[in-house]
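Recall the central idea of this unit: under ordinary conditions, the amino acid sequence of a chain determines the structure it adopts. In this exercise we apply that idea directly, starting from the sequence alone.
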Amino acid sequence: MTQRVIAGAIGLVAIGGGLFTILRANEPKPDDAVQLETLLLADPVKGAFLKESKQSLPEDYAAIVPPLLQRAVDMPEAAQGFDAIFVQKMQAFQAANITAMAGAETEVLAEFADKQRDMMQMQRLCELAMSDNPTTLPASGTDSRKVAVARDIALLRAVASGRTHAVTRVDPTEAQDIALGEQLQAKLTPKQVEDMMSGALVTQPPAERCPVLGAYWRLIADMPAQESATWTAFVLKSEAQ
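Accordingly, the structure predicted from this sequence is:
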């Protein structure tokens, strides 16, 4: 039953989308990529994400971030397109590591579910995550950016944990699926239930899907850690197919 909700339930564009506007007009222009990296690492929002990726996934960080920073320094005009390129690369990184995430430790996956719930329950963030067009959050949206970064950090930790531990989990049983479906229906409108049951939900615009996904992730995140991790891994594996 809940498989009808899963398609696109993670949101493959959101990672990194709350972070970057490189070299705003009122910011000093760095002399080199190292200086630019230092400036970004010192930022209370951007820096948290970059520090986590540099620490947890150093090879991935080295392959993605320094070359882009160097390009932004060498070609100042390229800084204007940095955001979109960065988000596209992080989108590809996330898509390539969905299966690894599913093998993360229980506590790590449960934490990811918590942060995913927080993001999906913020309508604007959810719509960005579901969008077909990678984008970044405006600098003015500090609270939204913090929620997005917290989710992205949880995702990085899940990738790192999954690569190391590769935990194998049994999928939820049919009875568990039915029970979750019934709980979800109790939180939705009749129209939302109809769209979910018919499969029409997956073709609707993000504004229509997000209330359902917010309710879905809240149910998963509120479960005990072991059950939450089981469901989160199931969603991730379904996304990877």
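Residues 3-240 form one domain.
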